[in-house]
Design a protein that fits this description.
The protein is mainly α. Helices cover 81% and strands 0% of the residues.
């Protein structure tokens, strides 16, 4: 699972400089495979949870659950990057609309960062 997540990340990064439909499909296939691993491993780990586990085993079990969830998130993010690259390549990704939507977030730190970004890239 970890190897597939690493391969998915490398594939998504490679698409930035050398986009191909084949590369995109490979990242999507890896994401599907990682999801299947998460389902199978998560189900198994949840089945053994009701058994009597000592404190160390219980701690390890929770680490495993969090780890497989993290790998699954990596696969999801790589797939999202691949889709965004298609949108950028086909000129469907409106970065100004995206940045404008972020303005709605009422977070002071974001507001400061947004203002720096806006000034740097003259989004007005």
């Amino acid at each position: 699972m970890a190897e597939h997540a690493r391969e998915s990340l490398a594939g998504a990064i490679a698409l930035r400089g050398d986009y191909s439909e084949e590369g995109y499909l490979h990242v999507c296939d890896l994401e599907t495979l990682i999801d299947q691993y998460e389902d199978a491993l998560g189900s198994y780990l949840l089945r053994i949870t009701p058994t009597e586990l000592n404190a160390k085993q219980n701690e390890d079990l929770h680490k495993f659950l969090h780890t497989i969830t993290d790998f699954e998130r990596v696969g999801d993010h790589c797939s999202n990057v691949a889709v965004a690259l298609i949108e950028i390549r086909q000129d469907l990704f409106d970065t100004h609309e995206y940045v404008d939507s972020l303005k709605l977030i009422e977070d002071e730190a974001f507001g400061e960062n947004y203002e720096r970004f806006r000034a740097k890239y003259s989004l007005d």
